[in-house]
Design a protein that fits this description.
Strand order of the largest sheet: 4-5-3-6-7
Distance between the termini: 30 Å
Largest sheet: 5 strands, mixed
Helix content: 25-40%
CATH class: Alpha Beta
Number of domains: 1
CATH superfamily: P-loop containing nucleotide triphosphate hydrolases
CATH architecture: 3-Layer(aba) Sandwich
Shape: globular
Length: about 250
């Protein structure tokens, strides 16, 4: 929470915000199949802690994350990247349950970025990310679009996170199989017919998978990478909307 008095902007603890108020607001979708741990991951990002039994998301749940970028010593009148900028990142945790498929598009408005989440132990949840990308790209509206260079024609920055890394043993074998393809692959590997590093034919890959993993139930994720993504989304918004406005004012 932010408020302003005669000395400038402050946060809920009363600390001054270097004369810089909330500078913008961006919207990031969090999508993926039901049960991959999206709500647990969002809770971890927002609260910094795990949640034992997250309730099933009904339609969509929204959380807010405060993000800054730039130097705290920068002037609020400086439009360079050296000035500190405050942003509120809205995380829209969209239910992956099939019953909401027909109405999910009402949440796909004014999108600035997308986080795709899949279950590392369930191969199908990864291949289904392509369907999610197409669904968002075809039915959504976007703020500060970059072009259609992303998966499914997605025109905004995106991040891919493989959740539930804690369910996969370190030797690479899976605790449970998500599909017949996984069972077949494991059997072929055991017979020595396919190296473990190879994929079976027709297994879909998802572009942009940088190996970012998390274990939301164990409160483990790459915080630095996620914050870097948020700042990139905020920067795109700043250059698309705010920077031209400041030039017009000047």
């Amino acid at each position: 929470m932010f408020w302003k008095d005669s000395s400038g902007w402050k946060d809920s603890s009363g600390r001054e915000q270097n004369g810089v108020g909330p500078f913008g607001q961006v919207r990031v979708l969090v999508v993926g199949d039901s049960g991959v741990g999206k709500s647990s991951l969002v809770h971890l990002i927002l609260k910094g802690s795990s949640i034992a039994r997250p309730a099933q998301t009904v339609g969509c749940a929204v959380g807010i994350k405060h993000v800054t970028y730039g130097s705290a010593g920068g002037s609020s009148n400086n439009i360079s990247n050296d000035a500190e900028r405050n942003f509120f990142v809205e995380l829209w945790d969209v239910s992956g349950h099939e019953r909401y498929k027909a109405c999910r598009s009402i949440f796909y408005t004014q999108i600035n970025g997308v986080i795709f989440v899949y279950d590392l132990s369930q191969r199908k949840t990864k291949t289904n990310l392509n369907k999610w990308a197409v669904e968002v790209a075809e039915t959504g509206t976007f703020s500060a679009p970059l072009g259609s260079g992303g998966p499914g024609g997605l025109p905004v920055p995106y991040l891919v996170i493989a959740n539930k890394v804690d369910t996969v043993p370190r030797d690479g074998t899976r605790v449970r199989s998500g599909s017949i393809v996984d069972v077949a692959r494991q059997w072929i590997e055991k017979q020595g017919l396919l190296p473990c590093s190879e994929e079976l034919p027709l297994t879909e890959s998802f572009p942009g998978n940088s190996g970012l993993v998390s274990a939301a139930k164990e409160a483990r994720y790459d915080k630095e990478a996620v914050i870097k993504f948020f700042r990139m989304v905020c920067l795109e918004f700043f250059h698309w909307f705010v920077f031209p406005l400041l030039i017009l004012i000047c």
